[in-house]
Specification:
335 residues, mainly alpha, 19 helices
Length: 335
């Protein structure tokens, strides 16, 4: 900025946003990204970087809008880094919306673009998540393809992040095959590798899956410790979906979520029986939006929104939108 080199300045700022995002400094990353968008500078890059944060926060509609815009530009400009970053982000959004087919296709497009590159960094996070997603949905071929890519990256760099991602991928495959002991060992190794890395969301996500594997292997106490760590980190970051998943896994072990994680976690664990989309609609209802306004924000038809609102009222045993907003606040569903 001091030397008047505006292009270099923008490159530095976008890299800064990426680093802040990965290090869990989301408020600062969001602030810098919004400044770029407001100035009309590198808008599509900022949209992609912020879109991933929105996805991890559970703001699926805004995440899809930002990521789709950025992904289209990245594809047109053949910008590899943003292409794989936004593809991975869109895969997460699709999975959260129960669109497994789209999520798988996004992961495959990321893999295809990685094979055309010499990248040892940008795709690691997406490949790790992709391996987990494919394994958990029974797609052994997809899981193997992601693990193979991570094997190549790990062997060529030896970086702890890539090695942890590979261990996670192997662990997920083992868990899918019913080999809980190997899964717990590999995911435990991944958590150890991440201990020295300042990547809190990644660490929390791996801790959660390690907790699941440990529980399957019969190590209940350590499983609960991993799940508690995952929950606390996710809550601190504002990663609501990950926090809710950790709370649900604690409940699956027959533990009191209130005692282990707190009352707010208990509400997150069951979501009052609401689906992810219903929670989105409820939060907009709570701030006074009409069905037509909600439809516009979530890219739904007013008729679909009306159906969601009726389901919300029924599940919360409320007679009005105002009652539903109060009930949601009491359950901690609006935070």
């Amino acid at each position: 900025r001091a030397s008047g080199e505006s292009q270099t300045e923008v490159a530095c700022v976008t890299c800064m946003i990426y680093c802040l995002r990965e290090c869990g400094e989301w408020p600062d990353a969001l602030r810098l990204g919004r400044e770029l968008i407001s100035s009309g500078t590198a808008v599509w890059v900022a949209e992609g970087l912020l879109g991933v944060i929105h996805a991890l926060q559970g703001k699926l509609s805004s995440a899809r809008r930002l990521l789709s815009s950025s992904h289209a530009s990245a594809a047109q400009l053949r910008h590899y880094n943003m292409y794989v970053d936004t593809a991975a982000g869109l895969a997460r959004v699709a999975a959260a919306e129960d669109s497994a087919g789209e999520a798988a296709e996004r992961c495959r497009s990321m893999l295809e673009r990685w094979h055309e590159s010499e990248d040892h960094h940008y795709a690691v996070k997406g490949l790790r998540w992709g391996a987990s997603f494919f394994a958990r949905t029974g797609d052994r071929g997809g899981a193997h393809a992601c693990a193979e890519a991570l094997t190549r990256i790990s062997s060529e760099t030896g970086h702890a992040d890539a090695l942890a991602a590979l261990a996670h991928a192997i662990g997920e495959a083992a868990l899918a095959d019913g080999d809980a002991d190997t899964a717990a060992e590999q995911l435990g190794h991944a958590t150890q590798l991440h201990a020295g890395l300042d990547l809190p969301f990644e660490r929390a996500e791996i801790n959660l899956r390690a907790g699941v594997a440990l529980a399957a292997a019969g190590d209940r106490d350590l499983a609960l410790e991993r799940l508690r760590d995952a929950y606390r980190t996710a809550r601190k970051l504002g990663a609501r979906p990950l926090a809710a998943e950790a709370a649900r896994e604690v409940a699956e072990l027959g533990e009191s979520v209130v005692r282990r994680l707190g009352r707010r976690a208990a509400a997150e664990a069951n979501g009052a029986g609401l689906s992810g989309r219903e929670l989105e609609v409820l939060r907009l209802v709570a701030v006074g939006h009409t069905n037509r306004e909600i439809a516009g924000q979530l890219f739904l038809s007013p008729r679909t929104v009306d159906m969601h609102v009726r389901n919300i009222l029924r599940k919360l045993s409320c007679r009005s939108r105002v009652e539903a907003a109060h009930a949601a606040a009491e359950l901690g569903l609006l935070g």
